């Protein structure tokens, strides 16, 4: 009997994770295409193919749901950055990641993504969630840069300063993109190049 429970529990966990993913993907698609304010949780549940009460069991608020896509992107980023088999240094990886991400987000046109950014920036609860995720990005980048530099990751040393500059630089480019007609990919990669130039002398061979 206990063996039966051991078999069912992982399946139940897997289904729960799959439902969570479906809801998050449905929400991100609707928020991006219709806008945050115009999208209802009933619509999200319908697109995800679940009852709205099921949605609430996974996400307690609309704001939490709106940031779930960013959390999923971060989870993918962290898994790939910390893969021991990846090639290149942290600057190389961040450059590829930022380029790929912004190209994907702007594939349907700049104005749609600009509106998406404006909506999020106008909603304080969403910004609160996003600030936490940005801090997570900085921490993971700091750990990776510390390995690249052969230095400890604790304290306000070069790894933390470089990681903070990469995150702040990307945020600055997004703020400019929100109000200016700029090529977000080109500008974002330029920032990375500039930060790397300041710290490239610290890079050591990856083991």
Task: Identify the notable features of this structure and list them briefly.
single chain; 207 residues; mainly alpha; Arc Repressor Mutant, subunit A; Tetracycline Repressor, domain 2; 2 domains; 9 helices; 77% helix; globular
Distance between the termini: 48 Å
Structure class: mainly alpha
Largest sheet: none
> In CATH terms, what is the architecture of the largest domain?
Orthogonal Bundle
Which segments are poorly predicted (pLDDT under 50) over 5 or more consecutive residues?
A: none
Overall pLDDT level: 87
Structural notes for this entry:
By secondary structure, this protein is mainly α. The chain folds into two domains: 1-60, Arc Repressor Mutant, subunit A; 63-207, Tetracycline Repressor, domain 2 (Orthogonal Bundle). Helix content is 77%, strand content 0%. It has nine helices and no strands. It has helices at residues 2-34, 41-48, 52-58, 62-81, 90-105, 110-121, 124-149, 158-179, 184-199.
Helix-strand layout with pairing:
Elements: H1 2-34, H2 41-48, H3 52-58, H4 62-81, H5 90-105, H6 110-121, H7 124-149, H8 158-179, H9 184-199
């Amino acid at each position: 009997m206990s063996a039966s429970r051991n078999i069912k529990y992982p399946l139940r966990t897997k289904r729960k994770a799959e439902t969570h993913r479906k809801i998050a993907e449905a929400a991100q698609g609707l928020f991006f295409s219709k806008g945050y304010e115009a999208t209802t949780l009933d619509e999200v549940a319908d697109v995800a193919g679940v009852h709205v009460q099921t949605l609430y069991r996974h996400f307690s608020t609309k704001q939490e749901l709106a940031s779930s896509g960013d959390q999923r992107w971060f989870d993918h980023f962290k898994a790939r950055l910390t893969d021991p088999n990846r090639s290149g240094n942290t600057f190389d990886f961040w450059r590829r990641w930022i380029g790929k991400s912004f190209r994907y987000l702007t594939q349907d046109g700049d104005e749609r993504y600009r509106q998406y950014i404006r909506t999020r920036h106008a909603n304080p609860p969403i910004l609160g969630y996003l600030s936490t995720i940005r801090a997570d990005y900085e921490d993971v980048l700091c750990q990776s840069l510390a390995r690249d530099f052969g230095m400890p990751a604790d304290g306000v040393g070069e790894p933390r300063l470089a990681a903070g500059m990469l995150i702040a630089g990307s945020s600055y480019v997004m703020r400019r993109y929100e109000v200016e007609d700029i090529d977000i990919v080109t500008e974002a990669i330029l920032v990375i190049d500039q930060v790397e130039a300041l710290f490239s002398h610290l890079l050591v061979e990856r083991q």
